[in-house]
Each structure stands twice: as C-alpha cells, then as structure tokens.
TrEMBL record:
It comes from the Bacteria. Belongs to the adenylate cyclase family. DacA/CdaA subfamily. The keyword ATP-binding applies. Probably a homodimer. This is Diadenylate cyclase. It is an enzyme of class 2 (transferase). Keywords: ATP-binding, Cell membrane, Membrane, Nucleotide-binding, Nucleotidyltransferase, Transferase, Transmembrane, Transmembrane helix. Pfam families: CdaA_N (PF19293), DAC (PF02457). The lineage of its organism: Bacteria, Pseudomonadati, Bacteroidota, Sphingobacteriia, Sphingobacteriales. The chain crosses the membrane at residues 12-31, 37-56, 63-83. PANTHER family: DIADENYLATE CYCLASE.
C-alpha cells in the first residue's frame, strides 16, 4: 500500500534547496578546519553532554536537568570561548578565498602577473641563497612571510629589526650561536621586521612525529593568519614550505623560488 502523500512536497521551495546546500557547505568547511585537531574531541564531548541532558530530562530527573540546563543555557557563549581559534580560522579562510578571487581577477584584468614575478625575482634571490646555504650547513631556520606587520602579534614576542632582506643577515640571525637564532624571522614586503618571534603551535593531531617545534610553529601561524612560512630543518637540512596549515616538504631551492614568486 502506497502511503506517500504528494502534499508533503507542495510547500518545498527552491529557496529550501539553496538553504540546504549552503548549510552543507558550511558544515563541510567547519569539518575541514577541525579535522585532525583537538576540537573534534571537544565537539564529541559537547554532543555527549547534550545527549545526557536529553536523557535526564526525558526521565524527569529534575536536579540533573536543572544543572545540565544551566550549562546549555549559556551554550552559545561557551562555544565561542571553546572554539575561538576554529571560528577565527573559519573567518580567515572565508576572507582569504574572497581576497584570492579578487586578486586573480585584478591580475587577469591588468595582465601584469609575469612582470610582477620578474620584479620579485631579484628580491627573492637573497632568501633562496640563504636557504640553500643554511640547508647545506644544516642550520635550522623559520621564515614567516606576512602581508602586513601586526606589531601586537609579532613584535611583542621578538626583537624589532626593520632591515632589508639579505643573505648574510639571515645567516647571521640563524647562526647557532646567535642570540636570535631561536624563533622565527618575520618578513613583510621583503624587509626583516622582527627576529626570534614565538609563534603559536599547531594543535593538529595528524602531524608526523618527526615534526619539531619549527614545523609545528610554521603550521600554527599559517592556520590562524594569511602568512606563509619556509622551514629549514636543523636535523636533515630539508627545506619545507607551509601555507594554510599544509606542508610541502623536501623542496629544492629552485622549487622554493618558483613557489615564492607565485605567492609573493
């Protein structure tokens, strides 16, 4: 016997389909941002907490219902506090995609991308030469390239320099006996703004065990900002590039140069 009621779909509108589609996109973005991080465990804990609340409420356990209900009543504020890093990352991700599309349109309109890459080639050369030299000598280094200089974010944890990028200066900073070799160098518009910066470490649980503090700091800063980072491993001399929390490992100086020309 067919119990299907055709009137069920009578109130279904095109806007409802768009609504479901947009919610699916938001859920996908949220999942992609928290996948492999400690936020997943927190989300599972919140789901279990809410499930227990529904059970005790259904069983009419008044005292527990009041206690759990008190926490749930301030749930939105608690979620903002607990997931502040993920919310920040989500908003940055959206803004970054909009900025990237706008920039691509701008370059295609002016048709000057190749010219810009040629101009950046001379400025990128000392960075590549320094990375090549430090890779050969297995000198650990972490270079962060930011679009703007946030004094409160970077300068508070490092030494302010504000000097043009040069091969010798980068090698001097990361020389193992230098007082500034620990931490990151922040480069803005091909100027070394600060050295010995302390960066936020990534809390991702999917990182390989061989990743040290430099790699975790590079991943962490690119997760919460629009910065990109270059790492030279002290143990292996391997050069890596990080963007949006993703690591491209075992790069040659030529491959790094090509990437930086596109990114900068």
């Amino acid at each position: 016997m067919n119990n299907f009621d055709p009137n069920i779909l009578s109130g279904f509108r095109l806007l409802d389909i768009i609504d479901i589609f947009l919610v699916a996109i938001i859920i996908y973005y949220i999942y992609s941002l928290i996948k492999g991080t400690i936020a997943v465990n927190i989300l599972i804990g919140i789901a279990l907490f809410y499930g227990i609340y529904l059970v005790v409420k259904q069983m009419e356990m008044r005292l527990l219902t009041e206690i759990f209900g008190g926490f749930i009543s301030v749930g939105s504020i608690a979620l903002i506090v607990v997931f502040q890093q993920e919310i920040r990352r989500f908003l940055i991700h959206i803004g970054k995609n909009i900025s990237l599309r706008r920039k691509k349109f701008f370059w295609s309109f002016l048709n000057t991308k190749k010219t810009a890459q040629m101009d950046n080639g001379e400025q990128i050369k000392p960075i590549i030469d320094a990375c090549r030299s430090m890779s050969r000598s297995r000198t650990g280094a972490l270079l962060v390239f930011s679009r703007y200089f946030d004094e409160e974010y970077y300068q508070s944890s490092g030494e302010y320099i504000d000097a043009p990028v040069s091969k010798r200066l980068l090698e001097s900073i990361f020389f193992k006996n230098s007082p500034l070799h620990d931490g990151a160098v922040v480069i803005v518009d091909f100027r070394i703004m600060t050295a010995s910066c302390v960066l936020p470490l990534s809390d991702s649980e999917d990182l390989p065990p061989q990743f040290g503090l430099r790699h975790r700091a590079a991943i962490g800063v690119t997760e919460v900002s629009e910065a990109i980072a270059v790492i030279v491993s002290e143990e292996t001399g391997e050069i890596s590039f990080t963007k949006d929390g993703n690591v491209n490992m075992n790069l040659s100086p030529e491959e790094l140069e090509k990437i930086l020309k596109e990114e900068l």
